[in-house]
Design goal:
three-stranded parallel β-sheet, Rossmann fold, alpha/beta, EC 1.1.1.22, six-stranded parallel β-sheet, about 575 residues
């Protein structure tokens, strides 16, 4: 819920938004220079909403001039309106709208283990809200929950506060890790489910007004609450299904000589199919897809629809098959033995541009490879702190099992002396194709205006549509300016206030210093995250690898023809190689 709260506050300066959590460390990090999660652009939004913004003047036309005392456009000073606190009861009691955004993982034991949703945290928070929420408050389900959870919420509220009226809404998130901020700023749709009563519709309209501050009204959909709850599960399940479908075809391609990328391109031009989610790989990860598919499986099974449940269960089975098949392919190509060999895993997060490692395929791959007793498994991820990754692997697999796992702060040390490099995440940094340089846009050429559409950061968004620029306008200009050649300032609009100082013994500052000393930095909260990522020097990597040099491309980011020139053998998902 942190990114959602940040964007809601960012877009509604007149609304006070408070994120509450009992986790003292998490709240401390939200109130510091070290947010607990990494998403491109998130830190800049948090800074404006949490710390406020300075009054500034900007040139209102496309220009090399950024900030000027005689600027044509004045940007008013902004007060802080985003707060983070551990006073859960106090802030719930004063809220008009309470959004419940807690973890709802898959149950690990008991009835429904392995498919049902574990509602422990959600139920506990609902009970807490029931005790302290003011009469008439609107309770909003943000967590992904089973269909008909709103009835559980209603029953809990009635039990704790009989006779007190609350309205319950469903407002699921449709975000993707790595692009969560853009997904919130420029959503395809906002879904609000409510009771079909006058008071339910008024509650939905109240929440709709919050989003209408920046989302075109035609993109805000209203349904009954059950449809909204189920739509979230179905959306994620359908996306997961497409990934498993193309991964099943990749196995056929490897046996027939067809190229899965060519097949995907051929079917993707059909408008009935489309080209989204047709990139073959080693399977999906993250906290949502598997959990939500299994939630749908459990729902079908418990409602006497076993055929429906089995249909969706195959989506998860195919996902695991894709990951395990590729891992076994690595072992087979290395003569079925890893003894005495070093294997490098590039990418530990489940997808690019995020530090989220939940359900990441890389962890299960490491677990399988360790059974072959390699000399070393090296890990590098450009968005994950190596100390955090090392501790996570140790906690999940055990300290003795992972003694041969080493996490590095840079890719070159990780790949040195490796017999095989396995690409487990599709980071642009890992690609070996040259970066295409787009032609620079003329300075005086304004960007085309498309309401609610993501702007092109390479095009100057000025002149703005309105005399007073919106927060999206200012953010688009910020992104455009920090990407300019020679731009070194992280605040070209001169709008940021100074961030709060950390204590001398701040563990995050200490960890950041240690990471920097080891050659690791994410660029979080800096202009660097908006600039094109520097590609790895594969010539340098190939020179230091041990023969026979193998690259196993699990994400389709490598041009095998270029690697062959370096004397490196390549195995890729969904295609045969004869190198």
């Amino acid at each position: 819920g942190g990114p959602t709260a940040a964007v809601v506050a960012f877009q509604n300066p007149h609304i006070k938004v408070t994120v509450v959590d009992r986790d003292v460390t998490r709240i401390r990090r939200w109130n510091s220079r070290h947010p607990p999660i990494y998403e491109p652009g998130l830190h800049d939004i948090v800074r404006i909403a949490r710390d406020g913004g300075r009054e500034t003047n900007i040139s209102g036309q496309p220009s090399d001039e950024i900030v000027s005392e005689k600027g044509e456009t004045s940007v008013a000073r902004r007060e802080p309106n985003l707060f983070f606190s551990t006073d859960v009861a106090g802030h719930i009691a004063e809220a008009d709208i309470v959004l419940v955004a807690v973890n709802t993982p898959t149950k690990e034991r008991g009835v429904g283990a392995g498919s049902a949703t574990d509602m422990t945290a959600f139920e506990a928070v609902t009970g807490f809200v029931a005790q302290y929420a003011r009469e008439g408050a609107i309770i909003v389900e943000k967590s992904t929950v089973p269909c008909r959870t709103a009835q559980l919420v209603a029953d809990t509220l009635a039990m704790h506060r009989p006779g007190v009226h609350f309205e319950i809404l469903s407002n699921p998130e449709f975000l993707a890790a790595g692009t969560a901020v853009n997904d919130l700023l420029y959503p395809d749709r906002i879904l609000i489910g409510s009771a079909p009563t006058p008071s339910g519709k008024r509650a939905a309209e109240a929440l709709l007004e919050v989003y209408a501050a920046w989302v075109p009204r035609e993109r805000i959909l209203t349904t009954n609450v059950w449809s909204s709850e189920l739509a979230k599960l179905v959306a994620n399940s359908m996306l997961a299904q497409r990934i498993s479908s193309i991964n099943s075809i990749s196995a056929v391609c490897e046996q027939t000589g067809a190229d899965v990328d060519e097949v995907a391109r051929a079917i993707g031009v059909d408008p009935r199919i489309g080209n989204k989610f047709l990139m073959a790989g080693i399977g999906f990860g993250g906290s949502c897809f598997k959990k939500d598919v299994l939630n749908l499986v459990y729902l079908a099974d418990t409602m006497g629809l076993p055929e429906v449940g089995e249909y969706w269960r195959q989506v998860v089975k195919m996902n695991e098959y894709a990951r395990d098949r590729f891992t076994n392919r690595v072992i087979k190509c290395l003569n079925n033995t890893l003894v005495g060999k070093k294997v490098t895993i590039l990418g530990y997060a489940f997808k690019k541009n995020t530090s989220d490692t939940r359900e990441a395929p890389a962890l299960e791959m490491i677990k399988t490879l360790l059974e072959e007793r390699p000399r070393e498994i090296a890990v590098f991820d450009p968005c994950c702190n190596p100390f955090v990754v090392k501790n996570e692997i140790k906690a999940l697999l055990g300290p003795q099992t992972t003694a041969s796992v080493h996490v590095y702060g840079n890719a070159y040390d990780a790949c040195k002396d490796s017999t095989a490099v396995v690409i487990a995440t599709e980071f642009d940094e890992f690609r070996n194709q040259p970066v295409a340089k787009p032609a620079p846009a003329p300075v005086d050429q304004p960007a085309p205006k498309m309401l609610g559409r993501k702007p092109n950061p390479k095009t100057d968004p000025r002149p703005f549509k309105e005399s007073t620029p919106t927060e999206n306008d200012l953010l688009a200009l910020h992104k455009h300016l920090v990407q300019r050649d020679g731009q070194t300032s992280e605040d070209p609009l001169d709008r940021f206030n100074v961030e709060p100082d950390c204590d001398d013994d701040c563990p995050d500052c200490i960890q950041a210093r240690e990471s920097k000393e080891n050659g690791f930095a994410t660029g979080m909260g800096s202009a660097e995250e908006y600039k094109p990522k520097e590609r790895l020097d594969w010539v340098r990597i190939a020179e230091t690898m041990a023969k026979p040099r193998w690259v196993f491309d699990g994400r389709g980011v490598i041009d095998s023809r270029e690697m062959v020139k370096l004397g490196v053998r390549v195995e890729s998902v969904g295609r045969q190689h004869r190198f």
